Fold this protein.
Amino acid sequence: MASNYNNSAWFYDRLSRLVYGRALINAQVYLLQFVPANSAVLIVGGGTGWILEELTKIHPSGLGITYVEIAADMMARSRRQNTGLNSVVFINDAIENVGINREFDAVITPFLFDNFTEATAQTVFNYIHQLLKPGAIWLNADFQLTGKWWQSVLLKAMFLFFRILCKIEASELPDVDRLFTSGGFKALEGKCFYGDFVVAKIYKKR
Ligand SMILES: C[S@@+](CC[C@H](N)C(=O)[O-])C[C@H]1O[C@@H](n2cnc3c(N)ncnc32)[C@H](O)[C@@H]1O
């Protein structure tokens, strides 16, 4: 069952700021420095699209961006963001349903996989994987559990909230590390935020 973030589009960013301060933003902005200049970039699940403006601050031109977001209300907000002289193709659909006939140098998946069951995460991962050129960079940000009690409390509260409001299918985090390891990716660097609850990692396709 596909999630539906339409209901949350108008308050999503404010809620995120209220609970996490700038942590979720900082995790994604940290990743953006690894996007190569003049590259073909895929962004999946960008939400309201503020990441487009942040990416444009680093690369005001030269990028060919494909922006895939399933929620129409999120997409409407994304289209209003400043993308400078970069070219952007907006696709309002689930990534796994989109027929894309180009390959990418980099992909950004910011808090995408935590919406999915293990099975959907694998399907989405495989789909994105085959869209990447050899040597491409995969920039992923997600929540993780590192053993602190409050992390699982916060995670359960989030899953409950977004299951009721946005019908997300997940009730626990999929094993994202396993996806990248079994997919043959090399982890290059990473950084944790918000008491290690948030992790941003850079992977390279072999
Ligand atoms: C947890 S939100 C994160 C939004 C944004 N990355 C942020 O950090 O503010 C996940 C986003 O992924 C989108 N999404 C979920 N499943 C998707 C799919 N299969 N294809 C494309 N987008 C999807 C949702 O609509 C939502 O906007």
